[in-house]
Design goal:
Layout (H helix, E strand, L loop, with lengths): L6 H16 L7 E5 L4 E6 L6 E9 L3 H8 L5 H4 L3 E9 L6 E8 L10 E12 L2 E8 L10 E2 L1 E2 L2 E7 L7 E7 L1 E2 L6 H24 L1
Parallel strand pairs: 6-8
Antiparallel strand pairs: 1-2, 2-3, 3-11, 4-5, 5-6, 6-7, 7-10, 9-12, 10-11
Pfam families: START
Protein name: STAR4 protein
GO molecular function: cholesterol binding; cholesterol transfer activity
């Protein structure tokens, strides 16, 4: 089990990694799924043997309110159907925009994918005219019974206002989750695409209430 990281260098490294993903050319991505709410692309991850997913869609709301619903905090559990519990384990005196959270996810695909637990370092900061909220898993804390401990390689959400419609925002996510446990890769890939498009439709419903 690792000790808690030094927040500032980890936040800087995470920011740099996400910006690097955000600058990957269109030709490197392959479309996985398209719905009215979002499009999902994928490419091989450089962090592990699975895929880095990119998902993008326009959300009708201002950037700050959208990010408040995504980052660790009171809103997320209310609307994210995949997330079953979330606790802030640690905060950092030296960097108020960082925290360590533990969350659990529901079983998926008729429980072929059993519930998972994650412990993530999370960082939220400004990006261009909007915000970036990002995270990476830590080997920290005891694994609770009845859960497989998953691992999120660097992930994040860029949310920026549309230039001509500032009351609308372009939300772009980068997700690369190692679910771990004995799972067929095809099940993981199916679940990821559906989870990411459902995330947008659930988020849009939550913002309208």
């Amino acid at each position: 089990m690792d000790l808690l990281p030094d927040a500032t260098p980890l936040a800087t490294k995470l920011w740099n990694t996400l910006v690097q993903y955000h600058n990957i050319g269109d030709s490197e991505w392959r479309v996985a799924k398209k719905t009215k709410d979002a499009t999902v692309w994928y490419k091989p991850s450089e962090e592990f043997s699975g895929y880095l997913y990119k998902v993008q869609g326009v959300v009708e709301d201002v950037t700050n309110r959208i990010v408040d619903h995504i980052r660790p905090g009171p809103y997320r559990l209310d609307w994210d159907s995949l997330m079953t519990t979330m606790d802030i384990l640690e905060t950092f005196e030296e960097n108020k925009n960082c925290c360590v959270m533990r969350y659990t996810t529901a079983g998926q695909l008729w429980n072929i994918i059993a519930p998972r637990e994650f412990i993530d370092f999370s960082y939220t900061t400004s990006y261009e005219d909007g915000l970036l909220t990002c995270g990476v898993s830590l080997d920290y804390g005891e694994v609770r019974p009845n859960f497989v401990r998953g691992f999120n390689h660097p992930c994040g959400w860029f949310c920026v206002p549309l230039k001509d419609y500032p009351s609308h925002s372009l939300l772009t996510g980068y997700i690369q989750t190692e679910l771990r446990g004995m799972l067929p890769q095809s099940a993981v890939d199916t679940a990821m695409s559906s989870t990411l498009t459902n995330f947008y439709s659930d988020l849009k419903k939550a913002l309208k209430t």
